[in-house]
Structure formats: C-alpha cells, structure tokens
Specification:
ARM-type_fold; Serine Threonine Protein Phosphatase 5, Tetratricopeptide repeat; 366 residues; ARM-like; 18 helices; Armadillo repeat containing 12; mainly alpha
Amino acid sequence: MGKSIPQYLKELDIRKSVVSLATGAGAIYLLYKAIKAGIKCQPPLCSNSPICIARECPVPGERALPQEAPAPEASDVGGPKGLAIERERHGRDSGELRRLLNSLECKQDEYAKSMILHSITRCVYLLEAEASACTTDDISLIGYMLDDKDNSVKIQALNTLKAFSGIRKFRLKIQELSIKVLELISTIWDTELHIAGLRLLNNLPLPDYVHPQLRRVMPALMEILQSDYILAQVQAARLLSYLAQKNDLLYDILNCKVHSNFLNLFQSTHPGSLLYEILVFAERLSEGQNVAHYRAVNWHYNEQSLHEALFGEGSRLADRLLALVIHPEEEVQIQACKVIVSLQCPQDLVARSSCQPSSSYFKNGE
C-alpha cells in the first residue's frame, strides 16, 4: 500500500532475476552430477549388446575394454582412414567382418544375434575381399543359426547365407543347408522367413539329392504361391519355374493340389512382377508336359490338381491369357503370348513353321 506502480514493477523484475539465477544454478548442478556419474561408471560386463557387435568378446564374466576412438591415420591418398569399405578399396583389411564373426561365437541374446547377422550381411556385400577370405567354418557357424528358436535370427541367417552364396567357393557348403531351408519354409508360416528362404534357394543350383525333400514340401510351396504376399509369391513362382524343368519333378508339380480359384493369379489387377513370374511358370509347365517322353506316359491327375486348373477341359486359362495380351506392361504381354504358343504347339514341333493352332484348347476364332 502506498507504493507507486513503477516501484511495484521494479520489485517484480528483481524477484524474476533471483528465480532465474536459482533455476540456472540448479540446472548446472544437475549437469555436473550427470557428468560425474558417467565418469565413475565402470565398463559394462560383456553383454554382447548390438552396441558392441563389432568388438571381440572377452572371457565370459570379464569386462569389455572400453573402445577409444583412435586418431585418424593418414592414408596413402592423403586423407584419414575412413570407413571399412574405403580401407579395403585401398588394399587394407579393416578386420570388421572377422570381428563380427568372432562376436557371433559368443553367447548372445536373440536381438544381438539378429543385429550381428544383419551387419555381417552388409559387410559381405560391401567388403568383397574380406568376405572371400572367410572359410567354410564361418558358413557352418551361420548355418547353426538356422536352429535358433527365434524366427528373426533364422531370417537374418538366411539373408547372410544368401549374401555368401554369391561367392563361388561357398556355394557347395551352402547347398548342404538346402534341406534345412526347405524344412523351415514348409513348417513355419512366416512371410519374411519364406521370402528369405526362397531368395536363398533361388540363388543356388539345387542338387539332385534334394529332390525327395522338394516333393515333400511341394504342397507348402504351392500354398505360398497362392498366398496374399506378393514378394513371397514371386519367389515361390521363380523356384517352381526352375523345378518344372526337372523331369523327375514335373508330375509332382502338376499333380499338386491347388485352390479352386487358382486362376485368379492370372488376373490383370495383380502387379506386373507377379504376373510375369506366374506366366513363366505356366510356360514351363506347358513346355514340360508337351515333351515327347512325357506325353508317352498316361499320367493320372487328381481333380483338384494344378494340371486340371491350368490344362483341364474345364479350365478358363485361355480367357485369362487373352486378357493379359493387352496388359499395360509389355513384358507381361510378351510372356502371355509365349504361353499361348506353348499351349498350341508341342515342344518338339515349336521349331517347325508348319505348326498350326489346335482347336482343342482355344475355340475357333480366338
């Protein structure tokens, strides 16, 4: 009471300044406490977390040595040593891939194993020389990961094997895992696992001793082909197209049970990538059943078989093919025409110019 308005404002400014100073001092003190706690913190036990995936683990129970950032070393080209890929390009082994493989041998949790395998996959693609220097024991180590209880680890292991399969000297070793991969695909309904497993198989020449297992998993492959996951369907169609060229597997494929709406796979509304692979598959089947030695046998197919869906008397495949001839994508158009030609001309007559369209499949005028 009795104070003028300017005096009140001046007193209010002083109080605000005091509060600000107190708040700032408190923040600085808390920051000091945090820094002090960080300095005193001991290095963690070797938990093998994804943060440490590039380190080699010490004996279990020991603490990992803290990694110090080394000063950049001058390279021959005048700049500091950079990424591992840069060091390899200049003829130096970064050792990154070997460290990752070594860390995979340590006891890891599922998340850490997935991250390590993902990093190994990247290194194989980027560090060609280091990847080529790996051994078949490294492939076996990765193969053990296919038995892990966690599906994400299995998927990353499949991706890593796919990366290594691009190196010729590892293909034979990876082929030995084909039966295991087929088992995973047929017993676990996981789309990402299907995609990873099928991509690996499509990157390998499958040996004859795998054929018995292929016969057993044929229904599973056909189910994946008829699923609603485009990437998995594309990979399944590619594998089946490859297998359709194997004489001892052709009947097993054609006699495999399919859904009543199988021809929906030929609808023009599907992505061109899927339509193309489905059409290639149909062409391989048509060519295979038209070969003279296959036609020489009186094969019997069940009523719900792939053969009846595609080539049976009641099949509407011709209508679907004619619709795809005017598809917007040229690749699909051409492949649809190839299927039509293969249906009209037996394989041993395709090369003859006198091959006339048969009225048994396409109606007169079509």
